[in-house]
Design goal:
single chain; 317 residues; alpha/beta; Rossmann fold; two-stranded parallel ribbon
Length: 317
């Protein structure tokens, strides 16, 4: 894929997560040495890397500046994919999404690393009422102060084997007769009672396949001081995504419209359960369409024929 990786030493922070494990598998196709830096050496899910013996190593660290400096020392390329979807007692958005990227950037600059590719998220520059989005955007700002040549990649919703999106709804449909259409109907106060409920307005996504995102990230090693949005080839609503999942699983389920205010009440209770099944902050994020025409254009500079959900779902669900 990229002959520029031959003989290089690559560090992947968060390499045993969903996106990270796919990225490492693609890196294994290159003649490079790969080190996965992680807080948790043993991943929750089994991961198989198609690598040569000794090509991939693990290093478990506590995320502090001295440990990060040591992990990066003598390496050529750094990827950061560390992230959380919900806060808990030990992991907070500000530290994970703002402080860790800043510390990595500081270490990259100190160790004179040539390439630093940081994975952020789509829309973080425009969403002002979400703790997740604000922490991600502040992370971008802070890391640029430390290393201005960093490349920031903002993907839309990422799907593929091991994701927390399509797999979640597939599992939900296994035992639940209902699937939630969050954000429908859209409710807006109006003098005209017929305009209060809008069933046509839906949450829209432009999902990107994790394999395509991995290829894009690898091609970013030669770029400097750039920010890219990346999205997939088609725009989908919740109902259209559910249709694809159920069609593949040969199931029939009822779709239940849940407006945002009701979804937030549900999330208030669900976020208190172990694992934070759904949070109010996640509901806030859903108020913004996760789409970008520029994102698809950017992806096609690397991936000529991006994979769609229709093509990919049947390979992993």
């Amino acid at each position: 894929m990229s002959s520029n990786l031959r003989g290089k030493k690559v560090v992947v922070f968060g390499g045993n997560g969903f996106i990270g494990s796919h990225l490492v598998n693609h890196l294994c196709e290159e003649a490079c040495e790969i080190k996965i830096v992680t807080k948790q050496k043993k991943p929750k899910k089994k991961i198989f890397f198609a690598s040569e013996p000794g090509q991939v190593s693990f290093e478990e660290i506590v995320y502090e500046q001295s440990a990060i400096n040591k992990a990066i020392c003598d390496y050529d390329i750094v990827f950061n994919l560390v992230g959380i979807l919900a806060e808990n007692k030990t992991s907070k958005f500000k530290f994970v999404h703002t402080e860790i990227p800043r510390m990595i950037a500081k270490s990259v600059n100190l160790n004179k690393v040539k390439s630093y590719i940081h994975v952020s998220a789509l829309n973080v520059d425009i969403i002002k009422d979400s703790k997740y989005a604000l922490s991600k955007y502040n992370g971008e700002i802070e890391l640029k102060k430390e290393f201005s040549n960093a490349v920031i990649v903002r993907p839309g919703v990422v799907f593929g084997k091991g994701d927390n999106f399509t797999n979640f709804f597939s599992k939900l449909s296994k035992f639940s007769p209902f699937l939630p259409l969050i954000g429908t109907p859209f409710i807006k106060l109006s003098k005209n009672i017929f305009k209060i409920l809008n069933f046509e307005k839906k949450v829209r996504f432009q999902p990107i396949y994790v394999g395509d995102l991995s290829k894009f990230l690898i091609r970013m090693i030669d770029k400097k001081n750039k920010t890219y949005e990346v999205t997939g080839p088609s725009i989908k609503s919740f109902s259209q995504i559910f249709d694809l999942i159920l069609q593949h699983k040969k199931r029939t389920r009822l779709y239940i419209p849940i407006p945002f205010f009701q979804a937030k009440i549900m999330a208030f209770f669900l976020e208190r359960l172990p694992g934070s099944l759904l949070t109010r902050d996640q509901i806030t994020l859903l108020k913004y369409d996760s789409i970008s025409k520029k994102g698809l254009k950017n992806l096609k500079t690397v991936v000529t024929n991006p994979l769609s959900m229709e093509t990919s779902l049947k390979t992993y669900l």
